[in-house]
Write a structure and sequence with these properties.
The protein is of the alpha+beta class. It is built from two helices and four strands. The strands form two sheets. The chain has a two-stranded parallel sheet with strand order 1-4. Strands 2-3 form a two-stranded antiparallel sheet.
Length: 56
């Protein structure tokens, strides 16, 4: 997973909060995952940087 604290926060949802909740659910179920957190917004800049590692 990858997200930034300046992701979308619109009238229908808060993407940053949603991903924090997803992280909590994954931890609760003992899933093997990695969550790259940053301060960016909703774009592919950071996601593109970590994509090769994510595909391994």
């Amino acid at each position: 997973m990858q997200d930034g604290s300046n992701d979308l926060n619109v009238e229908w949802s808060d993407w940053w909060l949603g991903n924090l909740q997803m992280e909590s659910a994954f931890k609760f179920k003992n899933y093997d995952f990695k969550f790259e957190k940053g301060t960016g917004g909703h774009n592919g800049e950071r996601g593109g940087t970590i994509l090769p590692e994510s595909l391994v």
